[in-house]
Amino acid sequence: MKELKNRIDFAYIFDVKDGNPNGDPDAGNLPRVDAETGMGLVTDVCLKRKVRNYVQVLKECADGYDIFIKEKAVLNTLIDASHEDDTVKAVKDAKDKTSAARAVMCKKYYDVRTFGAVMSTGKNAGQVRGPIQFTFARSVDPIMTSEHSITRMAVATEKDAEKQSGGNRTMGRKATIPYGLYICHGFISANLAKQTGFSEEDLELFWDALKNMFDVDRSAARGLMSAQKLIVFKHDSPLGNAPANKLFDLIKVEKKCDGVARSFADYQVTIGENTYDGVTIEEII
User: Residues near 206 by Cβ (< 8 Å), separated by ≥ 6?
Assistant: First the structure.
């Protein structure tokens, strides 16, 4: 595996049409929104979940590409299993044993060495601070939530059927936004990558996930979600050659239609002149 030696910052632009990109369980699963500005929000953990799902489907939990945080996982069982590894059993000191177990978890689970994890429960494999972190994604323009009444031509129980005299209908509601373009910013630390074993090969898999993850995560609730732009700022050094916020300021996303935007074609994405030495810009999407 080739060691990652460069700090990387990136901007990820995606959109949703007639769907709910990230429901808020504290608000009846309505699309998340900034209450003061009306801008839509998608959490970092929502995006990480989609990366995990893509890697799990693509790699089928092959050696080195298993997923720690996955559906129906019992985390303490997985942590305890790391202590059954021969390299951990051979260690006598408790502190060193925790470090050895942490190394086993990083090697086995892609999401641990990528995003980090708290593994201090169970037999204790310590904590890992992952090299890749996301911000919340925020929409370019305010979003408008629409609620739709929906009907299921069936009921759950015989009692429900009796109440409707055989009508057998169940009413429900579905929340969507007509269109929203979102921008998320991300950061990749070469120093933390060295600690977790996150490699150049792992990075290529991560880029593939950002490009393709919506295509393996379709649902009626999420509508049409699509990756539109992935702009990468690669530094010549592990610590970086320019502030991330200044690099992100080079990206301009502007609406070019007169009315309400309803597609990515209604926006124009431009990248300003790069005046920072030691930083290269690449558009992966």
Answer: 51, 114, 132
List CB contacts of 278: < 8 A, sequence separation 6 or more: 235, 236, 237, 241, 242
Where does 142-280 have alpha helices with state H? Answer: 158-163, 190-196, 200-212, 244-248
Cβ atoms of 39 and 139 closer than 8 Å = yes
Distance CA 158, CA 84 (A): 51
Query: For 172-221, what is each residue's pLDDT tens digit?
Result: 788 999 999 999 999 999 999 999 999 999 999 999 999 999 999 899 89
Distances (CA, A) of 190 to 236, 237, 238, 284: 11, 9, 5, 20
Give the tens place of pLDDT for each residue, 78-102.
999 999 999 988 988 888 899 999 9
